[in-house]
């Protein structure tokens, strides 16, 4: 079984690129057993979504000023 450190790195990488089948399987299996890594994945998704919304709102404000 992979370590939490390795899985959290894969979770982060998986947000930017498609993981291999083996990596996706390892992440899924680990997340089924590890609450901390599930929380990390959930929080990472939330932060990414919030940052995207913030950038969109800033862009919208800039577009409306022009």
Automatic annotation (TrEMBL):
Sequence ranges assigned to domain Putative zinc-finger in this UniProt record? 4-38
- Tell me the Pfam families matching this sequence: zf-HC2
The name this protein goes by in its record: Putative zinc finger protein
| Naturally occurring in which organism (per UniProt) | Methylobacter tundripaludum
Q: What is the lineage of its organism?
A: Bacteria, Pseudomonadati, Pseudomonadota, Gammaproteobacteria, Methylococcales
């Amino acid at each position: 079984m992979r370590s939490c450190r390795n899985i959290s790195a894969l979770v982060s990488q998986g947000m930017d690129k498609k993981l291999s089948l083996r990596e996706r399987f390892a992440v899924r299996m680990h997340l089924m057993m590890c609450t901390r890594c599930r929380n990390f994945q959930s929080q990472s998704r939330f932060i990414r979504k919030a940052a995207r919304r913030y950038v969109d709102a800033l862009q919208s404000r800039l577009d409306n000023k022009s």
